[in-house]
């Protein structure tokens, strides 16, 4: 019951955040002087032609009207223009790229597997690696394992992902010739090739972040191991493995999940950079290409889509959090 | 009560001192970049096609290292890499420091007022911080490049954007500190004696935030330098031909196999300066605020 209330509260707050973010983004993009209609108007661009292009794309309306149209498009889909020249963009419609003559959703859809593959694999790797390394460091406090894990954490935040990626390419790709250094193979085509092409990107993106999580886990674990209930568990005669791996770990994971939730935005940023290092055509390259060609609807659609994605993922993390920590409903519900 | 640590203890923290020395070194290099390259007899803009072979690869050992080109030359253009790296230090530090100043100003202002005044304003700010904290800001930064008028100087756009997204960490910490300070005896006494909120904020609370501000400035700088480099790496940061480590690394992607040395110098410089600032920041925090629990390093602005 409480948990339901907690989740309902989170759901409402998530929707509010989505509305505010999209509203602000829309306002920022339309208050800045730029005219997407100008781009497609061609040369010579008569005022008449410009007005026509503008009306076709829906840019002649006030920005708040455009915003409402956009939101309606996500749920119902929308059409641009009238008659035989009209283009339709079915729901969920995140806008229409007039330069590429394709709905933004479709363009994003084609690229999303790449970015997702990188991001999800890396996140899984850094959570597993980080938490186990942290637990190990905490249990072996003060030993060489502990110290090197912590030194690794400081060095880790200082090494940019792309630098690490390029070094990885140089070492494991070109010098040792172990793994492929670029390109993406769809999962449906060949799962083995898919994973094989992603090994290096995953490691690069996850390696040092895992060190940061190791540091966090270690600190939490050391604190939790001092608690009374752990002493009780030990007194009951439970094995150390059971005490650390079950009783303590559960409480250690709570802050880890919180931090992970706030790292999702950075995960997407990291995936975009990684994509570029390994020449994969994902969401990042789509966005960069749109920025390069001044394809405003595509830029806007990609940004809003990314923001939505992160907020939704955050909600998912909240659900996990609620399951891990039954107290949430009392403190923040 | 609070134990003040002696500066000697900072000197005992060898890593922090090393960080400080490296940071000072980079500041010196950045300040004297033009003089240094003048000694070498080069500049970061002139092409030296004679230093390249037919494929655009630098001729000679280590990417064309020689008496005339100390770090070798850039592939394809033959521009002097030593000049690019030293002037790149200028770019990185200018953008990083300027963005940090903006982020600190917003962060302290927002944090201190939220903590002090509380109420709905505080709740709003806290929520905004939470949202911004997990926001895919890199995506947003890339996108802004497309809509801001080309007449607006790009470098300053980068500074503004990075600064505008860098403040949540600072605001969160400053808010927490202000909340704690608000209930301390000297603040309560001051209010009881009739001091207005303005006086209490500026005279009683702000001075006690000094340490936090210094520490977080040091921690924020490397993060924001990293963001500039990431944006430039993606080709949407500091525009060419202004030297930037991030852009050099980005151009290096295509040369990893044939001219890896092109990566080593800008990449090494970027890594060194970030690591140095992080070590210095960690050391300062331990020195100035021994009670602080070690948070995860530089949670604010990692691309």
TrEMBL record, chain A:
What membrane topology was assigned to this protein in its record? Multi-pass membrane protein
Which residue ranges run through the membrane? 12-32, 116-139, 151-174, 194-214, 296-317
Give the signal peptide as a residue range, or say none if absent: none
What is the official name of this protein in its record? ABC transporter permease
Q: Which Pfam families match?
A: BPD_transp_1 (PF00528), BPD_transp_1_N (PF19300)
Q: Which domain of life is it from?
A: Bacteria
SUPFAM superfamilies the record matches: MetI-like (SSF161098)
Q: Does the keyword Signal apply?
A: no
What broad class describes the main subcellular location of this protein?
membrane
Q: Which locations, inside or outside the cell, does it occupy?
A: Cell membrane
- Give the ABC transmembrane type-1 domain ranges: 112-321
Q: Does the keyword Ligase apply?
A: no
What keywords would UniProt list here?
Cell membrane, Membrane, Transmembrane, Transmembrane helix, Transport
InterPro entries xref list: BPD_transp_1_N, MetI-like, MetI-like_sf
Q: What does the similarity note say?
A: Belongs to the binding-protein-dependent transport system permease family.
Automatic annotation (TrEMBL), chain B:
Source organism superkingdom? Bacteria
In what way does this protein cross or attach to the membrane?
A: Multi-pass membrane protein
**InterPro entries xrefs:** BP-dependent_transpt_permease, MetI-like, MetI-like_sf
Query: Does Endoplasmic reticulum count among this protein's keywords?
Result: no
Do the record's keywords include Membrane?
yes
What are the ABC transmembrane type-1 domain coordinates in residue numbering?
89-281
Where does the record locate the signal sequence feature? none
Where is this protein primarily located?
A: membrane
Q: Which key words are in the record?
A: Cell membrane, Membrane, Transmembrane, Transmembrane helix, Transport
Subcellular location per UniProt equals: Cell membrane
Q: Which residue ranges traverse the bilayer? A: 95-119, 131-150, 156-174, 213-240, 260-281
For this chain, the family text in UniProt reads: Belongs to the binding-protein-dependent transport system permease family.
According to UniProt, the name of this protein is ABC transporter permease
**Which organism encodes this protein?**
Kineosporia mesophila
């Amino acid at each position: 019951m409480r948990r339901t209330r907690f989740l309902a509260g989170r759901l409402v707050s998530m929707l509010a955040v989505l509305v505010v973010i999209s509203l602000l983004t829309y306002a920022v993009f339309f208050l800045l002087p730029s005219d997407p209609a100008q781009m497609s108007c061609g040369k010579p661009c008569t005022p008449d032609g410009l007005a026509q292009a503008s009306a076709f794309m829906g840019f002649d309306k006030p920005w708040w009207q455009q915003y409402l149209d956009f939101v309606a498009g996500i749920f119902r889909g929308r059409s641009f223009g009238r008659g035989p020249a009209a283009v339709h963009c079915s729901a969920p419609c995140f806008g229409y790229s007039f330069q590429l003559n394709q709905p933004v959703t479709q363009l994003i859809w084609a690229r999303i597997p790449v970015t997702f593959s990188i991001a999800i694999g890396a996140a899984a790797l850094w959570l597993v690696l980080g938490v186990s390394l942290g637990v190990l460091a905490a249990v072996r406090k003060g030993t060489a394992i502990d110290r090197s894990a912590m030194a690794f954490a400081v060095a880790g935040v200082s090494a940019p992902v792309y630098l690490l990626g390029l070094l990885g390419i140089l070492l494991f790709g070109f010098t040792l010739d172990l793994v492929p250094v670029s390109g993406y193979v769809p999962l449906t085509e060949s799962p083995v090739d898919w994973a094989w092409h992603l090994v290096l990107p995953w490691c690069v993106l996850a390696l040092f972040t895992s060190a940061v999580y190791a540091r966090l886990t270690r600190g939490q674990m050391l604190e939790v191991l001092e608690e009374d209930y752990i002493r009780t568990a030990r007194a009951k005669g439970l094995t150390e493995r059971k005490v650390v791996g079950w009783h303590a770990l559960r409480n250690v994971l709570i802050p880890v999940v919180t931090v992970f939730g706030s790292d999702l935005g950075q995960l997407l940023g990291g995936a975009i950079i990684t994509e570029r290092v390994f020449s994969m055509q994902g969401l990042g390259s789509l966005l960069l290409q749109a920025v390069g060609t001044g394809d405003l609807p595509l830029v806007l659609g990609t940004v809003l889509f990314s923001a939505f994605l992160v907020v939704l993922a955050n909600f998912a993390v909240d659900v996990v959090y609620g399951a891990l920590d039954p107290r949430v409903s009392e403190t923040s519900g | 009560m609070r134990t003040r640590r002696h500066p000697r203890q900072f000197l005992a923290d060898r890593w922090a001192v090393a960080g400080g020395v490296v940071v000072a070194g980079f500041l010196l290099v950045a300040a004297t970049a033009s003089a240094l390259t003048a000694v070498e007899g080069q500049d970061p803009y002139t092409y030296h096609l004679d230093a390249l072979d037919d494929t655009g690869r630098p001729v000679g050992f280590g990417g064309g290292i020689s008496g005339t080109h100390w770090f070798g030359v850039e592939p394809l253009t033959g521009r002097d890499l030593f000049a690019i790296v030293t002037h790149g230090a200028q770019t990185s530090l200018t953008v990083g420091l300027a963005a940090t100043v903006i982020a600190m100003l917003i962060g302290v202002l927002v944090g201190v007022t939220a903590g002090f005044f509380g109420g709905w304003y505080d709740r709003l700010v806290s929520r905004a911080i939470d949202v911004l904290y997990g926001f895919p800001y890199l995506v947003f930064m890339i996108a802004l490049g497309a809509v801001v008028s080309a007449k607006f100087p790009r470098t300053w756009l980068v500074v503004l954007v990075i600064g505008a997204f860098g403040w949540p960490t600072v605001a969160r910490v400053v808010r927490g500190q202000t909340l704690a300070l608000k209930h301390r005896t000297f603040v309560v006494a001051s209010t009881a004696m009739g001091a207005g909120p303005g006086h209490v904020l500026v005279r009683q609370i702000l001075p006690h935030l000094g340490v936090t501000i210094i520490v977080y400035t040091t921690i924020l700088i490397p993060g924001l330098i990293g963001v500039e480099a990431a944006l430039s790496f993606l080709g949407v940061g500091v525009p060419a031909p202004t030297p930037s480590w991030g852009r050099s690394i980005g151009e290096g992607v295509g040369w990893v196999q044939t001219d890896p040395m092109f990566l080593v110098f800008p990449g090494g410089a970027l890594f060194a300066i970030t690591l140095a600032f992080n070590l210095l920041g960690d050391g300062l925090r331990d020195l100035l605020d021994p009670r602080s629990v070690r948070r995860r390093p530089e949670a604010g602005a990692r691309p």
